[in-house]
């Protein structure tokens, strides 16, 4: 089906289309993948990740831009192509034709739209550790198109092709977080959990806040044996020689915590860590010693051990110790002076 009104226009996909469209001029047709100005994308479900109110990202259907650019119907999703045809009739034909009225009834009743696989456009994957959402990018093609094509490949379980496309998108701009986060999902689906953690961490740095949900999920589900081994190692570790001989101290959890806190306040961090280690050996199920150990490790700039201690504190508490964990993640890239309470 020919659409001659688009044949001589250059089609672009972008976000923040108001100023961009004003500066570009009428010779461009701009596809808004927040769907604020696009009737077809507005009828597709939003990706439930990386959104803010009024700006819900959609996955561009395969062949949509070439359809607009060439004036020919190139959409590969045939049920969606029928929806697109109905929308063209409604928005571009004469007002009071029987064909347009029939199309309006069809769209209001959802007769054509119900045949579309809307779950596909949510970019959702169900992995053993939980649900994951693949993220469309926020920038024009070719970077956008490489990321979008990678999402389509992943949704069709073509993981090798998806990884290649996301690496291409990632290399085109190292500050884009979407291809990096998508690579993390790819690695997780293939059982490469260390690589998944690294990509989620990098995506968080580029995004400006830790990618905590996916990172925590992978950590808690696949690195539990390592955490248990760490706890066992701490419980079986020999007593350091620096502990002063104080009657009843070694049998009193609260006194060990107080002694460690006093040492930390006096900036004797090694001594404080020794007290907290003994407290952990005395009762590894209480979160206070783990959390205080995390603070001391953080003051010593041993951020991996700090993160691990906060994780174990959260495990002992029964919920993640997210506030301190997120701040430790930020310090891995830019040190900052945050207050901690022992």
What is shown here, in short?
The chain is mainly α. Helices cover 54% and strands 5% of the residues.
Q: What does this protein look like?
A:
This protein is 54% helix and 5% strand. The protein is built from 15 helices and four strands. The strands form two sheets. A two-stranded parallel ribbon has the order 1-2. It has a two-stranded antiparallel sheet with strand order 3-4. α1 links the parallel β1 and β2. The longest helix has 15 residues.
Features:
single chain; 342 residues; two-stranded antiparallel sheet; mainly alpha; two-stranded parallel sheet; elongated
Tell me the number of helical segments per DSSP (H or I, 4 or more residues long): 15
The Cα radius of gyration reads: 27 Å
Q: Give the overall shape.
A: elongated
| Gap between N and C termini | 70 Å
Largest sheet geometry: 2 strands, parallel
One letter per element, helices H and strands E, the order comes to EHEHHHEEHHHHHHHHHHH
Low-confidence stretches: 1-7, 237-250, 333-337
Task: Give the helix level as a range of percent.
Answer: 40-55%
Mean pLDDT: 77
Structural class: mainly alpha
Measured by DSSP, the beta-strand proportion falls in: 5-15%
Strand order in space, largest sheet: 1-2
How many beta-strand segments?
4
